[in-house]
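DATA SHEET
Item: assembly model
Revision: 1
Owner: S.N.
Input lines:
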Amino acid sequence: MLQTVTVSSNTPSIVFIREVYAESSLSTEAKEVTAYGYGCGEVFLTAEQRPTFVKAIEVDDWLKFQQLARDWRSQRGVMSSITEAVLCPAYQSIIGMGASAVPFMLEKLEEEAQDPDQWFWALKAVTGDDPVRDEDRGDFVAMAQSWIEWGRRQGYAW
Amino acid sequence: MGIGYWPHDIDRAVTTEAFLRAYRTLGYGLCFDGTLEPGIEKIAIYGKGPLGSEVPTHAALQLETGEWTSKLGIFEDVAHTTPAAVECDIYGRVICYLARARRA
């Protein structure tokens, strides 16, 4: 069953789509979200009003990640030391989510654009990979771009 | 974990010694205090822990005006009149000052 949700300025920040079937896909043309896929799914609108389709089995992970990300921001406060910041309980819990957190962190890196946060440590810890070139270390925007491109090459969708 | 920039040939360790060696590759050397000196750029290194084995936590940069500037974690940069103004439980205290010729 194809289900279409029209997004307007009055649309709540979270639009739920239940009992939708067929191949998953999204169209954001003309502010219209079309979501259809196998099984249930939910469309979340990001802060930039960009719809993100999340399969039902991932919804709990998505919500958990968002809460942990907020908790991490709160726990680290004004810490300057990345070494200290990544030891915060919330950040360690994000690492503990394992591979399910990877697309959410990649999405964060993309959203944060010119001021990416320190998701690099967790991404490396979880994936065991590090696509950042030596000459880009310390250039957080370039590091984020390397990880985003890596994610696309690995087939992650966010 | 080898995530961010760190100069080659310097131990990647969160110790005052490693930080001083790393800053040395950028032209900084130890100096006595944070007094404003024309043509000299100074930074204050903060650390926590027992005297002599502090763990670096933060750095502040002296502006040409004599004020200092700090980036407070993920938040905006702030200006402060003295290095001591941002000493706290999170950053600890100033453990040393470094200086190099101010660049244009």
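QC remark: The longest strand of chain A covers residues 41-45.
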